[in-house]
Design a protein that fits this description.
By secondary structure, the protein is of the alpha/beta class. It has a single domain, classed as Glucose-6-phosphate isomerase like protein, domain 1 (Rossmann fold, 3-Layer(aba) Sandwich), CATH 3.40.50.10490. The protein has eight helices and six strands, in the order H-H-E-H-E-E-H-E-H-E-H-E-H-H. Helix 2 packs across helix 7 and helix 3 packs parallel to helix 7. The protein is globular and about 45 Å long.
């Protein structure tokens, strides 16, 4: 979903709770991965890998001048023998090394699975901040410092929530030395909209 479609979606959702909710959650994400914090780990369930969110957060990191928003995608299954690039070869063992200063964003439309929940619990106990975008799983919510769920009535699906959150992560950030000027960001956005999708994800 590109910036134009996100803008149209925001118009449709104007007056609902969802714009405020997604911006609040994006603010939690931005605050947890501040410049002095550790990295951002992004993981899905075994049945769902959040590729799209990883790519959008990577774009937001570049456009907003906030490199800490660029996530490390943690995968349940990593092909052996160097069949994938290094940034796509991070397995679940990385969660066991997560600790203080790092943020773990869990995206799970359905049951996250007991194995993932156990690793998330371990990361939280080691000091990592846990955030969740999900379908309303009670156990995952109990582990998360902040969570946002797709509504049960189907008003919005989890993919749409992810687009709204990722678009909001780079907004309203405090000025930082060396950050791109607004005009530069607009130029990059226009260039991105005219370009094909990124190949590295």
């Amino acid at each position: 979903m590109d910036a134009v479609r996100v803008a149209l979606l925001r118009e449709v959702l104007a007056g609902t709770e969802w714009l405020q909710a997604t911006r609040r959650f994006a603010g939690s994400l931005r605050a947890s991965v501040g410049p002095r914090a550790g990295g951002l780990l992004l993981v899905g369930s075994e049945a769902y890998e959040p590729w799209h969110l990883a790519a959008h957060l990577d774009d937001e990191a570049a456009w907003s001048g906030l490199p800490e928003l660029s996530p490390t995608l943690v995968r349940h299954q990593v092909p052996e023998g160097g069949a994938v690039p290094a940034h796509l070869a991070v397995g679940l063992g990385r969660l066991e090394r997560a600790g203080r200063g790092e943020t773990l964003l869990v995206v799970a439309p359905g049951d996250p699975g007991a194995g993932l929940l156990e690793r998330v619990n371990g990361a939280r106990r080691s000091g990592a901040t846990v955030l969740a975008l999900d379908g309303g799983d009670a156990e995952l919510h109990a582990l998360a410092h902040d969570a946002l769920s797709a509504p049960e009535d189907g008003e919005l699906d989890l993919d749409t929530l992810q687009h709204l959150v990722s678009a909001a992560t780079g907004e309203n950030s405090p000025p930082r030395p060396g950050r791109r000027r607004f005009q530069d960001r607009l130029a990059r956005l226009a260039e991105h909209l005219a370009a094909p999708p990124p190949a590295h994800w």
